[in-house]
Design goal:
4 helices; about 250 residues; about 25% helix; ten-stranded mixed beta sheet; single chain; alpha+beta
Length: about 250
């Protein structure tokens, strides 16, 4: 076990070294590696004797972050694939082939955001056939959490760290909080292309106990939660929120 831990640490350092040369943004190398492992864990398929996991991963980057990878993309993808292979071995996961990681660009992502899409690719049964690709799952979109300000000594209590999950149009945004702006503007934390959504339509706000609420920012077409118009209200996992005619589902991750 210690050998695997040492190897994992070496791969993390190797990945981080490539990223640190390539990125001057808020995207963190080890965070991407860890989220890849998280997606592997989340997409397990149990058979009679084994647990299989996806072996093909696409990491979506913003145009600015992707541009910074020029010259490092291939070696970086190989390092991330090695990291996933060791993660699978440590957890005794079954893989039809060695993991593959591809880096691509998504114009909808902002600097510091990245998405991960996992799929299971079956090897060809006969030589000369092309591999069979399984159905692609949802793209999980992550943002690097902002640096938390140092708290003064003597302040009682501790914030409950929860993350909001916003799901719409086949995408899932993981929001670290404590505040996220929703709207049509590219400057928002969650961007909606619907013309009935105001540029800065609403905010999701996290309280000290980890609860989240939605707040209308004076939008033109208003905010509804489960069909009821609100100016502000506390949210629960599974709530459906409407911004004009655009809809998304709210969830929580502790």
């Amino acid at each position: 076990m210690s050998v695997l831990r040492n190897l994992e640490a070496r791969i993390e350092n190797m990945v981080e070294g490539v990223f640190s040369r390539a990125f001057s943004s808020r995207v963190q190398p080890v965070e991407i590696a860890r989220k890849l492992a998280k997606e592997m864990d989340a997409n397990k398929t149990a058979s009679v004797n084994s647990v299989f996991v996806p072996n093909s991963y696409t990491v979506w980057l913003s145009p600015d972050d992707h541009e910074r990878l020029e010259g490092y993309e291939r070696s970086l993808a190989q390092d991330l694939a090695k990291y996933l292979l060791e993660h699978a071995r440590r957890n005794d996961y079954g893989l039809p082939t060695r993991p593959e990681v591809k880096l691509d660009v998504d114009d909808r992502l902002r600097l510091g955001e990245f998405g991960i899409q996992a799929r299971l690719v079956k090897p060809p049964a006969h030589q000369g056939e092309h591999p069979s690709q399984g159905e692609a799952g949802q793209t999980m979109v992550y943002s690097t959490p902002p640096k938390q300000p140092k708290r003064r000594a003597g302040v009682a209590g501790r914030l409950t760290e929860t993350r909001a999950i916003v799901s719409f149009e086949g995408r899932r945004y993981v929001l670290h909080g404590p505040l996220a702006v929703l709207g049509r503007s590219r400057d928002c934390d969650c961007v909606f292309s619907d013309q009935n959504v105001s540029r800065r339509h609403a905010e999701l706000r996290r309280s000290g106990n980890g609860d989240w609420q939605v707040v209308d920012l004076g939008s033109t077409n208003g905010v509804k939660v489960n069909g009821r118009s609100v100016a502000t209200t506390r949210l629960a996992p599974g709530d459906e929120i409407s911004l004009g005619t655009a809809r998304f589902t709210f969830d929580l991750e502790a």
